[in-house]
């Protein structure tokens, strides 16, 4: 079975042929969602939730933003348009067999090149993101190239537990290394074992990328737009050359640790409770996830409300929130990467790690600091992020 879409021809070197996939949420499920959304109450006004009514502030997301977003979600947002957009790119599912013979269905979006020397690059999303983060970048490349001229294979999977991929198992704990292993196996299944491949990630995708790059010989390098790990501050030294912009970024990082990371504490300590809470109401997910898009983005490049609603709707319709937070129970320690490392620094990243610290975590061959952009770089500044990735990839592939 093949897809009629351009860029959908899987390389002949593939070890197994993925199945073309088209997303379609059943009408009954979509109608149930709309009914729940319409009936979901919004908390009454409080001193805290009427502060900074434009979006969010000291006490979190504002009530007015929630009310306005609920209205748009109910009356203006069209999920079928989002589905059409997703399905306009080649989507696939394939079954990956783990080391213990367990099988997982892995979803991914891809742009496959017909060039024999195309460079494979896997893009890994984080929380509260999804593969949707990379659609603008892929749409840009689709306009810029044909399958015959595209110099890259672009693969953007749904990580296990997210959206359209299988959930982690119920009978054992699941860690970043497990997700990384499945993603590595995916790249091998697509035929990139002999040539090797590159990885890119932000947020949890940065942990997956680092784990893969540090563990598997077939991975030839990693590019990150988030360099944060739990022990990253141990890399600091009085002799570090820190720019004024980086000093401001370090203040943002400290602020995040002080007043912005309570959600992560809840994810890491009581995932069962918060999973059950947020699965009970679309408005609960709107507040919990919407706050992150607002607080972690550059105010000048914040994703549109429609983009935020699309991400949260995907979470709701695939019931993936409770299975997407497993990595928070595991402190992410820095694994040194001796391969080609690239790092794009954005000022509104939730923890903009200085270059001097990043250089101590791997073989940094590419660094570029930007004056705009935040945590969701692929959504906020897709052309800029891609320019960095492409410049780094040309170095990394020839290392």
Model description:
This protein has 399 residues and is α/β, with parallel strands linked by helices. It folds into 2 domains: 128 residues, no CATH class; 232 residues, Rossmann fold (3-Layer(aba) Sandwich). Helices cover 39% and strands 16% of the residues. The protein contains 14 helices and 11 strands. The strands form 2 sheets. A 9-stranded mixed β-sheet has the order 1-4-5-7-6-8-9-10-11, with helices on both faces. A two-stranded antiparallel ribbon has the order 2-3. Helix 5 crosses helix 6.
What secondary-structure arrangement, pairings included, does this model have?
Blueprint: E1 19-20, H1 27-39, E2 56-57, E3 60-61, H2 63-75, H3 79-87, E4 91-97, E5 103-111, E6 119-124, H4 135-144, E7 152-157, H5 176-189, E8 197-201, H6 204-215, E9 219-224, H7 244-260, H8 262-269, H9 271-278, H10 282-296, H11 305-318, E10 337-345, H12 355-358, E11 362-369, H13 377-380, H14 382-396
Parallel strand pairs: 6-7, 6-8, 8-9, 9-10, 10-11
Antiparallel strand pairs: 1-4, 2-3, 4-5, 5-7
Mean pLDDT: 96
Q: How many individual helices?
A: 14
Helical coverage, percent range: 25-40%
Widest sheet, order of strands: 1-4-5-7-6-8-9-10-11
Strand and helix order: EHEEHHEEEHEHEHEHHHHHEHEHH
What fraction strand? 15-25%
Name the CATH superfamily classification of the largest domain.
Alpha/Beta hydrolase fold, catalytic domain
Number of β-strand runs: 11
Overall CATH architecture of the largest domain: 3-Layer(aba) Sandwich
What would you call the shape? Answer: globular
CATH class of the largest domain: Alpha Beta
The CATH topology assignment of the largest domain is Rossmann fold
What are the low-pLDDT stretches, counting only 5+ consecutive residues below 50? Answer: none
Query: Main β-sheet, in a few words?
Result: 9 strands, mixed
Secondary-structure-based class equals alpha/beta
For the CA atoms, what is the radius of gyration?
A: 20 Å
N-C termini distance: 37 Å
């Amino acid at each position: 079975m093949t897809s009629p879409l351009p860029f959908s021809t899987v390389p002949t070197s593939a070890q197994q042929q993925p199945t073309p996939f088209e997303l379609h949420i059943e009408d009954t499920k979509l109608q149930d969602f709309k009914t729940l959304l319409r009936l979901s109450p919004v908390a009454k006004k409080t001193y805290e939730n009427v502060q900074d009514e434009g979006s969010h502030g000291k006490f979190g997301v504002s009530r007015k933003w929630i009310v306005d977003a609920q209205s748009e979600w109910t009356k203006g947002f069209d999920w079928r348009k989002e589905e059409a957009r997703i399905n306009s790119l080649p989507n696939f599912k394939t079954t990956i067999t783990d080391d213990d013979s367990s099988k997982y269905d892995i979803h991914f979006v891809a742009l496959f090149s017909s060039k024999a020397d195309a460079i494979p690059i896997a893009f890994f999303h984080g929380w509260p993101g999804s593969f949707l983060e990379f659609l603008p970048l892929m749409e840009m490349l689709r306009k810029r190239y044909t399958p015959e001229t595209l110099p890259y294979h672009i693969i953007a999977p749904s990580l296990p537990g997210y959206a359209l991929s299988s959930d982690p198992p119920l009978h054992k704990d699941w860690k970043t290394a497990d997700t990384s292993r499945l993603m590595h196996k995916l790249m091998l299944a697509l035929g990139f074992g002999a040539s090797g491949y590159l990885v890119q990630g932000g947020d949890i995708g940065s942990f997956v990328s680092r784990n893969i790059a540090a563990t598997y010989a077939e991975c030839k390098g990693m590019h990150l737009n988030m360099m944060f790990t739990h022990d990253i501050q141990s890399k600091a030294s009085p002799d570090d050359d820190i720019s004024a912009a980086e000093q401001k970024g370090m203040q943002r990082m400290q602020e995040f640790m002080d007043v912005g990371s309570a959600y992560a504490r809840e994810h890491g300590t009581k995932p069962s409770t918060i999973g059950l809470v947020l699965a009970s109401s679309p408005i609960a997910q709107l507040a919990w996830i919407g706050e992150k898009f607002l607080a972690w983005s550059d105010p000048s490049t914040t994703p549109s409300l429609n983009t935020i609603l699309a991400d949260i709707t995907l979470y709701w319709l695939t019931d993936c929130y409770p299975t997407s937070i497993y990595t928070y129970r595991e402190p992410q320690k820095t694994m040194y990467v001796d391969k080609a490392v690239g790092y794009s620094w954005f000022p509104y990243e939730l923890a903009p790690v200085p270059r001097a610290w990043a250089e101590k975590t791997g073989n940094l061959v590419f660094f570029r600091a930007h004056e705009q952009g935040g945590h969701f770089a692929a959504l906020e500044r897709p052309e800029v992020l891609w320019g960095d990735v492409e410049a780094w990839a040309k170095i990394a592939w020839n290392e």
